[in-house]
Amino acid sequence: MPTSFSFAAAARVWSALNRTDRLTFGYNLLIALLVVLFASRVPAGYALGLPNVAMLLLLWYFFPRVGPEASAGWRLARALYPVFFVWFAYMQASAMDHILYRGFHDPWLGELDRALFGREPSVVLAQAFPQAGVSELMHGVYFAYYLLFPGLALYLHLKRSARELDDYFSTLCGAFFFCCLVFIFFPSVGPLNLKPPAPPGSVFPAIMEFIYRWFELPGGAFPSSHVAVTAVVVAFAFRHLRRLAWLVLLLGLGIVLATVYCSYHYAVDVIGGLAVAAGALAVQRWSARGRA
Known about the structure:
By secondary structure, the protein is mainly alpha-helical. It is built from twelve helices and no strands. Helix 2 (19-37) packs parallel to helix 8, helix 7 crosses helix 9 (204-214) and helix 7 packs across helix 11 (245-261). The longest helix has 27 residues, at 132-158. The chain is globular. The relative contact order is 0.13.
């Protein structure tokens, strides 16, 4: 009887979680297991997995109890927690990127870029458009990524459409978590060594230099999670932001171009990011048909 009751209770909790919760639960469980298996090869050892354990406990014991009767603050946190968790997931994946391979795969990726395009695209773009105004614009567009996907999430939450928000977050998190797993097992830095320092008096180049110095860790270049997430945002913008969708598309194209122009990614990183987004969107459409 206790075992039967235990399974029944677990089934009730699992059914109270949405698809984003379940995906996040699975990802945290997998990363926690990787930390245990490779603790000697990751910074801080087992301690690196403590946030994953905390997230598992939140998802299992707390989030199912945040219902319509909860305060607006708790409901907001319950609805938008993936916005904050993806930042931690990215940092953690970059900290774990040497558990199997001690170096980076940039020589191979750079060679592939040159084989496909003849020269390194980031160098070609920087030389073709060396103007300070173009650099300012491209770095500003790149920075807009940090506001783009939380902005659509907040809109869907305020629209009070839990199902649409879950569709969005489950697709976005699916793409992002896949990228993080690739970062762990196939680390690369990108052509950052080709990037000149931010010029004195610049705004967005200096902001991005600060972000990359203090909040970015090497190893998360391929596939480009910037591109994967941006592509997902654009796809959902055409579903939910009809009047603004074309503007989001224009911004998304700018972000894709900026990832290469600003020397944050190889062109093949962009191709990889688009492929990840296409796969995540295909899974979401298949899932939606199954629920119809």
